[in-house]
Amino acid sequence: MSKLYLLKILEIKKETEDSVSVSFDVPHDLHDIFNYKAGQYLTLKFNINGEEVIRSYSLCSSPVFDEPLKIGVKRVKNGLVSNHINNNLKVDDLVEVMPPNGRFFADVKNNNYKTYYLFSAGSGITPILSILHTVLLTEEHSYVYMIYGNRTENSIMFKAELEKLQEDYANRFILIHTVSRPKSNWSDLWKSLNEQTFRKGRVDTQAVEWFVKEYPPYAQNVEYYICGPGTMIENTKKALKSIDVPDERIFIESFTGLNKTNNSIGMENAKLIALLNDEKIEIAVPKGKTILRTLIDAGKEPPYFCEGGMCLTCMCKLKNGKVHMNNNLSLTDKEVEQGYILSCQSIPLSDTLEIEYPKK
Amino acid sequence: MTNNKMMHALPVDAYTLQKWFDLEQKHIFSKTWQFAGLVEDVTNPGDYISVQAGLNNIFIIKGRDQRLRAFHNMCRHRGTQLLRAVGKSKKAITCPYHDWTYDLEGKLISIPKKEEEFPDLCNKELHDCGLNLHEASVDVFKGMLFVHPKKNAPSIMEFFGEVAPFLGPHIPEELIEYKQKKDEPFYVKEIHANWKIIVENYIDHYHLAHLHQGTLNMYDHSKAEFGWAGPHYWFYEPLVPEYLEDVKNAAPYPLIDKMPEDKMGAYVPWLFPNIGITESESAWNTFHVLPLSPDRTLVTIRSKTMNVSEWEYTKQYTKSMASKVWEIYGNRGKYDGDKNDPMASGDFMLEDIYACEQQQKSLSSPMFSVGAQAQRGEYAIGRFQEEIKQWIEKYRDNE
Q: Scanning every residue of chain B, which has its alpha carbon at the shortest distance from the alpha carbon of A141?
């Protein structure tokens, strides 16, 4: 397991009715370790009611600002950790935190000349905000076109910050808000023009196609970043692919990497051979159980961390056999093609299989 | 026959010999971002244009995602050109020779009689056979399209970034193109001079008050500012006070709305190697120089003006004609006489062409030599030649 550090909470700010942002104080000697790229996440560990829980939250702060590390956390209905953070955390509390990680980031450079399309919905704004801020500040020639979906006008996180960016970078930042359940009142008639620029609807196929057509890219090196809940990511990606956006230009971040046991698939007692820390382990995997859990329950010590298909700590190579991955949020298509799997997500689909963990 | 006489930094040979022309084509025009047109030339998905950029013929096509792609315009089979000039493509690009077909991403998707004729070609999917179109790069700078023959070309901003702050405040994509005939640029002319002679004329400050004493005298040459930014030349000069005072009436076209009143004038940069821009109080022009041979060059000027109604243009024209400014400025030939004589034409383009062609002619005279160089007014000419020399030498040493 990767190393955890105790960080002190500097500030907790209510962003909307059901979300907060939490800033952490990083001591000077940990600055290098907690250095991050715009788009990456922090992984936190809590002990809630005697249970150890681990969750990752995208950083919404920008690495090029002199500002503390900040995450945004929106309440999830019945969500153990998100509610704990919203209800119980206080300034000066110490939290166990793993250094920033993640493959969803923009490779921001001074002399880049790119057009960034940012698609976000709900709390998916967090890594997008970090990328947005960082690009606008660092890449003076690049353009950013962003569409941000929310349920209502009131659930828009970081609204004031976004408005400020619109003012400061009016010539190369376009932001379209889209709201699925707009509140319309007679009083709207007296609202300023700025407040009325909402599109109605979700970030869906239609919205994506409209957006790209309405705001064609200026700089021709174009990248597309997507983050949001549920089907928003899949829908956005599908819409982009349907207009021939190449895969290698699309970057996605999904928050829904939760553990789900899947009993409907998998082999009964598949025979697993695992090469781990110079040991050859032979073991049977019960139906529906992951390779990682099988090894842990047998008293072995395979590398792992998030168990959500994100952190890549448990990555290994499948040398023989076939598996199903419940959730692959981090391996690239190319890595999958080369035989890499996430052992925390892999359920055997063949009678026998052989895997090898990287040497320590 | 080689000649060891010098212009400034370059030998006279650089302006007359095929050998030099070939070196430039290979080491300058095939290795730099090359002007390919204006953004509106490729408007809708499927629209394409093809351009010659040094030794490469490259086409630009717009995808359904509104992003431009660039490919080398030749079939991977036996090299036949795929697309002609301009047009609109439906779903695929088919070579006229043997009907090899590529999708709009440049991937090979069909070969007629593949199994019979090419049984050993490749046992993978066609697009994995290493026969997709060669990718090139395309990008947009100041409303202009540029192509680069390499797939992973250095960013266009690395090339133009330094000169960008010296350009005019014009936003070309908001302006509309001014044409005298439909589907033809504002001005196209084959000039009998080496392309560098034409560039040197464009960046020569010294000649403005002399060759163009009666044609470009509405600009105040004595207040000109100019210099270099990276490999590019920048230039600005204000209007003369009499024109400035009456500019709202006297301007030939409606004034460019982005021009600040305290900076009315002309920005006339030269972007290396072969595209000039003339950004003035009422027009924005590209001046593209395409070398055809050591002593022939095609000059194409495209002109853009304010996107306002016909009526606004008519009003402006009427006011301009009535303005006293033009009684003194901008319409008198250098000499009096037959209007067919370029020197009496009152047309600054004809004056420049005349000077360039006459200079080119003299290069082959046994008596030719450059007598002296004006230290300020002709400084840019020597500097431009240094730039050419560097590019050629950088590569020639490696061969």
A: B157
- Structure ipTM: 0.88
Residues of B in contact with A334 (CB under 8 A): none
What is the full DSSP assignment across A134-168? HHHHH-TT-EEEEEEEESSGGG-TTHHHHHHHHHH
- Whether A170 and A276 map to the same domain: the answer is no
Do A248 and A279 reside in the same domain of the chain? no
Q: What is the pLDDT of residue A256?
A: 64
Q: What residues of chain A lie within 8 A of the CB of B128, using their CB?
A: none
Q: How many angstroms separate the CA atoms of A300 and A308, rounded? A: 20
Set of chain A residues whose Cβ sits within 8 Å of the Cβ of B152: none
Q: How far off is chain B from A342, nearest CA to CA, in Å?
A: 28
Q: What is the pLDDT of residue A307?
A: 77
Domain range list for chain B: 31-157, 171-395
Which of A219, A253, A287 corresponds to the end of one domain? Answer: A253
Ramachandran class of A48: left when φ > 0, alpha when ψ lies in -120 to 50, beta otherwise = beta
- Contact by Cβ (8 Å): A144, A135: yes
pLDDT tens, residue by residue, B327-353: 989 888 888 888 889 999 889 999 999
CA A184-A188-A194 angle, to 5 degrees, is 115
**Residue B260: cis peptide before it, omega within 30 degrees of 0:** no
Q: What's the confidence (pLDDT) of residue A261?
A: 45
pLDDT at A184: 64
What does the alpha-carbon distance between residue B173 and residue B163 come to, in Å, rounded to a whole number? 19
Place of tokens 């900040």: A70
Answer with the one of A66, A101, A136 that is the final residue of a domain: A101
**pLDDT tens readout for residues B152-202:** 999 999 999 999 999 999 999 999 999 888 888 999 999 999 999 999 999
Q: What average pLDDT does this structure show over B73-93?
A: 86
Contact criterion met (CB < 8 Å) for A222 and B105: no
- Contact list, A210 vs chain B (CB under 8 Å): none
* Strands A222-227, A115-121: pairing kind: parallel
Q: Does B18 touch chain A (CB under 8 A)?
A: no
- Closest C-alpha among A104, A110, A120 to residue A39: A104
Nearest by CB to residue A113, choosing from B66, B105, B157, is B157
Alpha helices in B342-378 (DSSP H): 348-362
Domain coverage including residue A128: 115-253
CATH of residue A240's domain is 3.40.50.80
Domain assignment present for A263:
no
Smallest Cα distance from A117 to chain B, Å: 11
CB pair distance less than 8 Å for A243 and B63? yes
B156 close to A (CB below 8 A): yes
pTM of the model: 0.86
Nearest to B65 among A141, A221, A243 (CB): A243
- Cβ contact, residue pair B155, A112, below 8 Å: yes
Per-residue model confidence (pLDDT) at position A85: 94
Domain B31-157: give its CATH superfamily.
Rieske [2Fe-2S] iron-sulphur domain (2.102.10.10)
Contact with chain A for residue B183, Cβ under 8 A: no
Question: What is the predicted pLDDT for the residue at B159?
Answer: 95
Structural domain includes residue A106: no
Q: Do B65 and A240 touch (CB under 8 A)?
A: yes
Instruction: Tell whether A175 and A224 lie within a shared domain.
Output: yes
User: B171-395, which class in CATH?
Assistant: alpha beta
Pairing of β B101-103 and β B108-110 = antiparallel
The domain that contains A78 carries what CATH number?
2.40.30.10
Average per-residue pLDDT for chain B: 93
Mean pLDDT by 10 residues, chain A (360 residues): 85 94 95 94 90 89 93 90 93 94 91 96 95 97 96 91 95 93 63 63 90 96 94 93 93 67 70 93 89 90 81 90 84 88 92 90
